Amino acid sequence: MSEFADMGLAPALNEALMRARLTNPTPIQEQAIPLALEGHDIMGLAQTGTGKTMAFGLPMVEHVLREDSRRAPKSAKALVLAPTRELVNQIADQLKLLTDKTWMRVVTVVGGQSINRQINALQKGTDILVATPGRLIDLMDRGAVNLGTVKHLVLDEADQMLDMGFIHALRQIAPKLGTPRQTMLFSATMPKQMEELSRAYLDNPKKVQVSPPGKAADKITQSIHFVEKNDKPRKLREILRQDPDALTLVFARTKHGAERLMKGLVADGFNAASIHGNKSQGQRDRAIKGFREGDITILVATDVAARGIDIPGVAYVINFELPEVPDNYVHRIGRTARAGREGEAIAFCAADEVDLLKQIQKLMKIEIPVASGTQPAAVKRVKPQRGGRGRGAPRDGSPRGQGGKPSGGKPGGGKLGGQKRRRPRRSS
Fold first, then answer.
1. Which CATH superfamily is domain 220-364 in?
2. Which of 97, 115, 114 is nearest to 106 (CA)?
């Protein structure tokens, strides 16, 4: 099947795809869409930037269009859960592209924005609700949304949801959804828990995989610079000056580190901004908009805050610090070489990061080419002591304080139901 026009989609969807100049599906779309249109549950595995949103968005919109049922107050027909505000907004933008000029309505609910405004938006109901789990539970607790009419569920970036402790929020949400329903789970990596998640929430799913888990997009050129920690800022500036007009995404490990790095770059005359968990939603939105439009050429980000950045023009991803979780390296470099373009991923590795590099290379089953420096002997890393968790939880999608027991029902059974509960991480 070489074109969307051959998939038997509704005329309104074909027209929307033509307006967006989308004619040929990507491999993940070509495999997943026909199966999803037949009503199967889907477990999709593909690198970031390969078109996963359209892979679940097209069949989901098609199903809702076919049902053509009346929209009930405070209800939704389809629910998409994603781990971060940025990813929710990106998904909603693509769904609105598909539903343009139809009667369908798409509503987003995320932390960091007025909950009263979101309550009002849900009063008349919606066809598709795109949400972060924490804010959705807030709205459920207030009686602002009834999920009993949801017949289509999508879990996007499911691996990140697991890593952030969203499994507990999912246990609260899933029993409230309508049945029978179609569930689609999409991810770029395949941690061990993913199979358990699939068994808990999916019914005899069709597995769609277009690349081995942990593999980066083919058009990403990777390289590693072995550099002392104190020399990283100088090396970063040296690389940035080689192509000053290119859109470059720089990853730091912590919120404070990202902000400090950005301010240093601005002080040295670079056109930089930052996004992380200490920024308001408005600040994050403005930074991403400026980066997308080229008004900002360097965006310094943390892992969670950068999730959902879908900007085809990103030429370079620089790992100023290697991530603690090897899977996050795959997600980071997947921000470049999107939509079939080429891109370059550059990483810095200090002595205390050598073990992290080895874990990344083991996951990806490659040896990243060395651009400069010599690999030092590994130095044992000492993690800083974490402070008290404090009350409440981050409002950009993370689950709230998890008092009480998880909800019962199918999602609470099996291995997932009996595992030791993990504290959700604070968003970066």
1. P-loop containing nucleotide triphosphate hydrolases (3.40.50.300)
2. 97
